[in-house]
Amino acid sequence: MATIKQVAERAGVSVATVSRVLNDNGYVQLDTRKKVEEAIDQLGYIPNEVARSLYKKESRFIGLLLPDITNPFFPEMARGVEDELQEEGFYLLFGNSDESLERELKYIQTFVQNNVVGLISATNLADKANYDNLPIPTVFLDRGSQSEYSVYSDGVEGGRIAASEMIKRGSRKITVLKGPAHVMPVQERFQGTIEVLVQANVDFQVISLESLSFQEGMRRAYEIFEKFPETDGIIASNDTTATAILHEALSRGKSIPDEVQIIGFDDIQQSSLVFPSLSTIRQPIYDMGREAAKLLIKLIKKQAVEQPHIKLDVSYVNRNTTRKVK
Amino acid sequence: MATIKQVAERAGVSVATVSRVLNDNGYVQLDTRKKVEEAIDQLGYIPNEVARSLYKKESRFIGLLLPDITNPFFPEMARGVEDELQEEGFYLLFGNSDESLERELKYIQTFVQNNVVGLISATNLADKANYDNLPIPTVFLDRGSQSEYSVYSDGVEGGRIAASEMIKRGSRKITVLKGPAHVMPVQERFQGTIEVLVQANVDFQVISLESLSFQEGMRRAYEIFEKFPETDGIIASNDTTATAILHEALSRGKSIPDEVQIIGFDDIQQSSLVFPSLSTIRQPIYDMGREAAKLLIKLIKKQAVEQPHIKLDVSYVNRNTTRKVK
DNA sequence: TTGAAAGCGGTACCAA
DNA sequence: TTGGTACCGCTTTCAA
Fold first, then answer.
1. Contact B80/B142 with Cβ under 8 angstroms?
2. Can you give the residue ranges of the HTH cro/C1-type domain (chains A, B) (predicted)?
3. How far is A73 from chain B (nearest CA, A)?
4. Which nucleotide is nearest to A35 (CA to C1')?
5. What integer pLDDT is reported at residue B126 of this predicted model?
6. What pLDDT score does A145 carry?
7. pLDDT at site A155
8. Residues in A touching B249 (Cβ below 8 Å)
9. Chain B residues lying within 8 Å of A78, measured CB to CB
10. A222, exposed or middle or buried, with CB in 10 Å at 0-12, 13-18, 19+?
11. pLDDT value, residue A275
12. Cα gap A13→A8, rounded to integer Å
């Protein structure tokens, strides 16, 4: 790997001059610049970003913290983040926290140690202490509006929509899934749903979920159909649990959506591929990632931020686990 | 952010001594160490990895290059890589190449500029030039055995298994999908399949795919059912295209698996969630990621590598798009 | 318009 | 057992 010094020698100038042509600042005579550029070409020189980062106390890296990339919700989000960053010349350092506060802290520390210039976090931590007095801006993704900077979608409204679609489409004995307490956006959905259900005065039950996994969905689905066999509509916490419920219903010979309607939340890719395809509340997952990156870049560049909390709209996606509007 | 110098001052020792306690090498008197540790605690000091990296000419980062994390095949792989790395104290720098040679090169360059110590690449590049005389070891993932170090699964055998299961389960007019020429592992599957089909002397057609996307799968599915309505078995290039074919078949009222059997390849998560659930050839995706990371770490540590090419086994997963063995 | 040199925050060699 | 210091590769100030 060639260094700036070698380039300088070859071009017969000082390193300062090379640095000037590299960064295109300060005065450089045209022919001097030419000589330098030739030397750079000949040596195949690329500047060492580590040295730059050390001096400038900042890198081109942004840290992205996710609960688990294996959860189909997150790849799309990560892609949104990356696409936006990439356009702005930033790069991604990435870690799965796996719901471990310790692992999360470890990643944050490593990020900071490496002069990362910003952080995007989509973890579900109960505890914000990990993020206190960080020397870099942080944007929280998909976690409601409680933090200083955040990008999220309108969970309460999504929950409302789910409930009113369910009612509109004829369900009268509804079971609502309540996601784990520490997952903020899932609580908001739940609230929105309950609000509408209470107002409309329809019968409903609540089943609590310990996690948002497929397996937990299966377990609870079993419980639902055993305890509340008369249920004719299920509002799930997310698409993964909705899919689990769909499976359990199908394997019990329930006709979907005729006997039971199901509405999910998120609109992950696979929701259109299950059978029957899943009606759901769509979050603009990719855009959420993109917006978070945009906001973070503004913060990094110290540009004015008009909206520290960006709330994106959700919408109902009508597929085949719900009936026609009556 | 405290620096080593501040720690040294506070502890009343030299930076050299602080460095020694930090790295736990060289002689340090017990009470000196105590003083230093106290100073570190009081200042909340964490060493700057950038400075370390500059001096040592290596970081704790490994670059991971993927075609597209949004493709459900890759998250699991990335997770395998990360889990292994994390245990060894390495971190992940990550980029989606998006099938663009240029973008790929850009990422590789950035990785190198940042003293990354190793590279894992799962892209489909036709062109290996991007990887020539890199100063760091590279492991190629899911790309056959042609490169110096590689981790992949036995595609040829997988293709054979798919064909023989298809025949065993009664299909006699088989359509085989042929993935894009530049995607190596997909070609191997194809070869294995053809080999068995020819040997068994059964009727078959080949349909070429321009990509492995769901949309392309839909297009070709249409073509298959129009051109070869008598097809009674379809061997897809991967699970995504298999799922597309399943949809098209279902929407044409074909009974699956009675009229047409379908076998996919990969066993991505969603394959067990589609309906009917997809019979497929399972690749150990997570383990592939993990093995690649293991191999790379060996290379980085300059440990002996007995196996530069690691081929993992595939297996048939019997689900509901295939019939009982006759 | 150019170059010399200090400094970013560590590590490691050598001398004390 | 400890400290002084050169050095990693770059940027930037200051002087020429």
1. no
2. 3-46
3. 10
4. C2
5. 59
6. 75
7. 96
8. none
9. 69
10. middle
11. 84
12. 5
Would you call B269 an interface residue with chain A, using a CB distance cutoff of 8 Å? yes
Note whether B127 contacts A: Cβ–Cβ < 8 A: no
Query: Is the bond preceding residue B276 a cis peptide, omega within 30 degrees?
Result: yes
**What CA–CA distance (Å, rounded) separates A202 from A197?**
6
* Cα dihedral sign, A160-A166-A172-A175: negative
A288 vs B1, more confident: A288
* Whether A146 contacts A91, CB under 8 Å: no
Cα distances from A79 to residues A265, A285, A292, B69, B119, in angstroms, run 20, 10, 12, 7, 20
* Cβ-Cβ contacts under 8 Å, A92 against chain B: 93-95
Chain C bases having any atom below 7 Å from a protein CB = 1-5, 7-13
Residue with tokens 């760091």: B136
pLDDT of B55-97, one tens digit each?
Answer: 999 999 999 999 999 999 999 999 999 999 999 999 999 999 9
Kind and range of the H or E run holding B84: helix B74-87
- CA A302 to C1' C6, in angstroms, rounded, equals 29
Task: Give me the residue from B92, B95, B113 closest to A95, CB to CB.
Answer: B92
State the nearest residue by CA to the C1' of D9. Answer: A51
Please count the CA atoms within 13 angstroms of the CA of A26 that sit on its side-chain side.
11
Neighbours of A115 (CB within 10 A): 24
Give A232's DSSP letter: -
Report the distance from CA of residue B15 to the C1' of nucleotide C11 in Å, as an integer: 10
| Residue B326 CB-density burial (10 A; 0-12 exposed, 13-18 middle, 19+ buried) | exposed
Query: In whole angstroms, how far apart are CA B159 and each of B190, B200, B246, B248, B314?
Result: 6, 14, 19, 23, 10
- Ramachandran sector of residue A129 (left: φ over 0; alpha: ψ -120 to 50; beta: rest): alpha
Nearest CA in chain B to A50: B114
Exposed/middle/buried for residue A190 (C-beta within 10 Å: 0-12, 13-18, 19+): buried
CB contact under 8 A, B54 and A59: no
Q: Which residue, B260, B275, B272, B251, is CA-closest to A256?
A: B275
| Spatial distance between the Cα atoms of B274 and B272, rounded to a whole number of angstroms | 6
Non-local CB neighbours of A307 within 8 Å, separated by 6+ positions = A295
Q: How far apart are CA B122 and CA A293, in angstroms?
A: 25
Quote the CA–CA distance of B143 and A85 in Å, as a whole number: 28
Domains observed in chain B? 4-47 (1.10.260.40), 61-153+286-313 (3.40.50.2300), 155-284 (3.40.50.2300)
Sheet of A173-178, strand order: A203-208, A173-178, A233-235, A261-266, A279-282, A315-317
B91 vs A contacts (CB less than 8 Å): 93, 95, 107, 110
Per-residue confidence band for B145, with pLDDT thresholds at 50, 70 and 90: confident
Task: Tell me the average pLDDT across A165-185.
Answer: 96
A55 touches chain B (CB under 8 A): no
- Whether B51 has its CB under 8 Å from any CB of chain A: the answer is yes
Has this prediction a pTM greater than 0.85? Answer: yes
